[in-house]
UniProtKB/TrEMBL annotation:
It comes from Larkinella humicola. The chain crosses the membrane at residues 68-85, 97-115, 127-143, 150-168, 208-228, 240-260, 266-290, 302-323, 355-377. Keywords: Membrane, Transmembrane, Transmembrane helix. This is DUF1624 domain-containing protein. Residues 24-164 form the Heparan-alpha-glucosaminide N-acetyltransferase catalytic domain. InterPro entries: HGSNAT_cat. Signal peptide: none annotated. The lineage of its organism: Bacteria, Pseudomonadati, Bacteroidota, Cytophagia, Cytophagales. It comes from the Bacteria.
Length: 385
């Protein structure tokens, strides 16, 4: 990663997950920033044992507000692709797309390796890894196909995934099923990535291989939204069409939920329709308020998050681990990590409820990043991948 200036608006190598020029949508930057700030909030509670239900993931089927954050980000990746890869000369883009994807994937692996760097048990899937794969697939599809084909691919991916998960027998287990440990996706992950899966389960992964297919459909839905926003339709009409498309997507989600339940860990087709529908409506609202009506003053803190999205996600995952490597001795002689010591010292004594203390710790972490990223934005420091 390297710092750059916001003045390089025509640089074809700029990070497609950000927007730093007036040629890009302020509403998209804001929507991205809100999403990233929410991601930092839910990923960094003061105490994982005490989090309010909306700030945690659904146990299995169903969804919470937290379950919306990652698919929103992948949707935004798709919208950004439609803007960043729009130059006429696309001959050299494929290599740059692959390079950027490899960098993102490597950053995700680094986070999974740090601090022990044990390659024998490192988790290979992960959030940044899925972003890399979705970016790679969606970018190549975007530069090689037209809008009609992209729409068909969304349908093919969602229906195909439903058929695989619902009707293909699972080797060693029998009929197709949607249980955590015995579904087809879990079997594929164990077969190909045994010993390198999510440490909480060890035998299946929420960012597994098969569920990356519908995640690509999430990114493609963002590309379709970006194509609409770039069209010559009147601005207010574009906002209406985004919202209406979101309504139809939500309707489809709840119909499909009846036989292919909404589930983030499986990234079911109904989950894609639900999250893409809500993302379409969220982007429509931001676009109408900011780019159509001109209410822009409130956006700066979120834009600061949005233009350095990958940077803040990477560092917000790295810094707590570094702090926990620093040991602080307790009065009883026991040692705890510096992060835990800060939480126990600065938050726990001042809140009767451990849930409120945990939330206060998370909010403080987000506010610290608001300050850092706000300063970086003022200094025009944008770190691109």
């Amino acid at each position: 990663m390297q710092p750059t200036s916001t003045s390089h608006t025509n640089d074809p190598n700029r990070d497609t997950l950000r927007s730093v020029s007036s040629s890009r949508l302020l509403s998209l930057d804001t929507f991205r920033g809100i999403t990233v700030a929410a991601m930092i909030l839910v990923n960094n509670p003061g105490d994982w044992g005490h989090i309010y239900a909306p700030l945690g993931h659904a146990h299995w089927h169903g969804w919470t507000p937290t379950d919306l954050i990652f698919p929103f980000f992948l949707f935004i990746v798709g919208v950004s692709i439609s803007y960043a890869l729009q130059q006429k000369d696309r001959a050299g883009l494929a290599g740059k797309i692959v390079k950027r994807s490899l960098i993102l994937f490597s950053l995700g692996l680094f986070l999974n390796l740090f601090p022990k760097f044990d390659f024998t048990t490192v988790r290979i899937p992960g959030v940044l890894q899925r972003i890399a794969l979705v970016y790679l697939a969606c970018s190549l599809i975007y530069i090689k196909t037209d809008t009609r084909t992209q729409g068909w691919l969304v349908g093919i991916l969602l229906v195909g995934y439903w058929l695989l998960m619902s009707f293909v027998p699972v080797p060693d287990f029998g009929p197709a099923n949607l249980e955590a440990e015995t579904n087809l996706g879990a079997w594929i992950d164990r077969t190909l990535l045994s010993g390198h899966l999510w440490k909480t389960s060890k035998i299946w992964d929420p960012e597994g291989l098969l569920s990356t297919l519908p995640a690509i459909a999430t990114g493609l839905s963002g590309i379709l939204a970006g194509t609409l926003l770039k069209s010559r339709r009147p601005e207010a009409e574009k906002a209406v069409w985004l919202f209406v498309a979101g309504c139809f997507s939500l309707l489809g989600a709840y119909v499909w939920n009846g036989f292919f339940p909404i589930n983030k860990s499986l990234w079911t087709s109904s989950f894609v329709l639900l999250t893409s529908g809500l993302a379409l409506q969220g982007l429509a609202l931001c676009y109408w308020l900011i780019d159509v009506q001109g209410y822009k003053k409130w956006t700066k803190p979120f834009v600061a998050f949005g233009v350095n999205a990958i940077t803040v996600f990477f560092l917000s995952g790295l810094i707590p681990r570094i702090l926990n490597m620093i040991k602080v001795q307790q009065p009883d002689g026991a040692e705890i990590g510096a992060k835990e010591w800060l939480y126990q010292t600065l938050f726990v004594p001042y809140f009767e409820s451990p849930y409120n203390a945990s939330l206060a710790g998370a909010l403080t972490f987000v506010l610290i990043w608001f300050g850092i990223l706000g300063w970086m934005y003022q200094q025009k420091i944008i770190i691109k991948v």
